[in-house]
Hints:
Number of domains: 1
Structural class: alpha+beta
Shape: globular
Low-confidence stretches: 1-17
Amino acid sequence: MEWSGEPAYSYSDSGPRRNDSGEPRPTDESIIGAALEVHRPLGPGLLESAYEECLCHELCRRGMGFRRQVDLPVDYKGVKLDCGYKIDLLVGDEVILELKAAEKLLPIHQAQLLTYLKLARKRLGLLINFNVPLLTQGIIRRVL
């Protein structure tokens, strides 16, 4: 049984580069570029939800397909259980974005991203902490 989360919000376009599910194929560089564009005028200090909203706007502006707050069930002994987990953003049905606005990233944040990658059967994830003076210091890339 294949995982499929229902988005609370989604966007897709008809750009030329597509993955198997028809979404535009994202790159981590293009996603990071969008995050940098959001962080540049706002800086640190806002709530995670504000950065998420702004990043969604920027992804739309750039024509990048994504789903927001995607349900992520836990597969336990072949049964998919709703335990309340949600992926912040799933870009192009390929890249998991876990957004933070924390004083610093902790090992538990990285463990959360790795767990989400495994549960969703995705390869690439970005952990982005917007609560830093220089956004490049708040980005962790993980590949399974």
